[in-house]
Write a structure and sequence with these properties.
Radius of gyration: 19 Å
Number of helices: 4
Number of strands: 9
Strand content: 25-35%
Structural class: alpha+beta
């Protein structure tokens, strides 16, 4: 038997200090959208993997940032890898994989412009699209090469070397011939 409902996690209250799950979030159960609900350019996205990132804590605050805060009652923001279950977009046929900021939900109707195709290289894994081949890797790559313009002989200090992005920055800097000092903790 196929499930007819799915679960989403919504922001219920802005945390003051620590997150208290049963106060900060609400769990919502709703019907899984159907292919008939799609408009042109939309897909039915089933989340398979969700990236839980430190930035999410900041998104819960009602303060100015590089992205608007998650509003009370909205599905909590988060990057996901998913499979396209139904499609009205030529860019994402049914059965293809994609990534996007779909949020903490098992199913969502998403416009194809909000998704990126996942192309995994030989010996890669689908989950790499949330790490080294996703936003983490892109941030590290462009940050150290385009902004930092690292070159052989440079001395690079990575203050967040234990984090996802910092660990990739250190590796790229080493590959470019720089001396790297990583700070963790």
């Amino acid at each position: 038997m196929t499930a007819s409902t799915h679960t989403s996690v919504r922001l219920a209250k802005r945390p003051k200090d620590v997150i208290i799950p049963e106060e900060t979030f609400t769990i919502e159960t709703s019907n899984i959208p159907k292919a008939a609900d799609l408009k042109d350019g939309q897909v039915l996205f089933q989340s398979l993997y969700l990236s839980l990132d430190p930035a999410m804590r900041g998104w819960m605050n009602d303060t100015r940032s590089y992205v608007p805060p998650v509003q009370i009652g909205e599905t909590m923001r988060g990057a996901c890898i998913g499979i396209i279950k139904a499609s009205k977009s030529p860019s994402f046929p049914t059965g293809s994989y994609a990534t996007g900021t779909v949020g903490w939900t098992e199913y969502a109707i998403v416009h194809s412009k909000a998704l990126q195709k996942i192309e995994i290289p030989k010996n890669g894994r689908l989950t790499d699209a949330l790490g080294v081949l996703g936003m983490t890797g892109l941030t590290a790559y462009f940050g150290i090469l385009s902004v930092g313009q690292v070159k052989a002989g440079d001395f690079v200090v990575v203050s967040g070397a234990a984090g996802a992005t910092g660990s990739v920055v250190g590796q790229i800097a080493k590959l470019k011939g720089a001396r790297v000092l990583g700070i963790a903790g």
